[in-house]
Design a protein that fits this description.
The complex is a heterodimer.
Chain A lengths: L1 H24 L3 H26 L3 H27 L9
Helix pairs in contact in A: 1-2, 2-3
Chain B lengths: L1 H28 L3 H26 L4 H30 L16
Helix pairs in contact in B: 1-2, 2-3
Classes of the chains: A mainly alpha, B mainly alpha.
Chain lengths: 93, 108
């Protein structure tokens, strides 16, 4: 199981870095919010693997917290984009 | 019995991680916002479901299992809702699709 969790954490780390690069290079609010949402998904996966590694009950609550935060954040940005358009103020399209 | 559970959990964890990796790669591969919404939603949901299932098999049965089930159910409810709202917002903000030659009668 240690080998499996190590492989999983490595792949998840690479995925997280990829998503960070995507968020930094994203053009427009939708892409950026989407990248942050994917980042939360990767973090949730990492938490699931961390539960397997440590077996601590505290981390289980963090999964609930992270999923609620990702949902509310994405929905807020979506409402904002719907009213104001896809560009950040002062940013070239 | 423990060995069977370990093998199933390991397979679920590895497959779920692979799907999350696919989602991260797909963000770069897809050509427009709608394709990216697609690729950030479906593989990510499947990946989360598989890894949480693998974690469920490894924790002692009880309150931790219940909370993991609740987290998984919330994911299945929230990810389609949020991605649909993102797609609708992009559509109403006139974000162009990758294939502009498709007949599009929606004027926003």
């Amino acid at each position: 199981m240690t080998v499996v969790t190590t492989v999983c954490m490595s792949v998840l780390g690479i995925s997280f870095l990829l998503v960070v690069v995507f968020v930094l290079r994203a053009r427009g609010l939708v892409d950026r919010s989407l990248g942050l949402d994917t980042m939360m998904s990767v973090a949730l996966n990492g938490l699931a693997v961390a539960i397997v590694i440590t077996g601590q009950a505290d981390i289980v609550d963090l999964t609930l917290l992270i999923s609620v935060l990702a949902f509310i954040g994405t929905i807020t940005v979506a409402r904002f984009v719907e009213r104001r358009g896809n560009t950040v103020t002062g940013e070239e399209e | 019995m423990d060995t069977v559970l370990d093998v199933v959990a390991a397979a679920a964890l590895l497959t779920g991680t692979a799907f999350t990796f696919i989602a991260a790669i797909g963000l770069f591969r897809m050509g427009d916002v709608y394709g990216r919404i697609h690729v950030a939603t479906k593989p990510a949901t499947l990946g989360i479901a598989l890894t949480l299932f693998g974690a469920m098999l490894q924790v002692p049965f009880g309150s931790m299992t219940t909370r993991l089930v609740v987290a998984l159910a919330f994911q299945f409810w929230s990810i389609p809702a949020s991605s649909h709202m993102l797609g609708r917002a992009a559509r109403r903000a006139h974000v162009a699709p990758a294939h502009p030659d498709v007949v599009d009668e929606f004027d926003g």
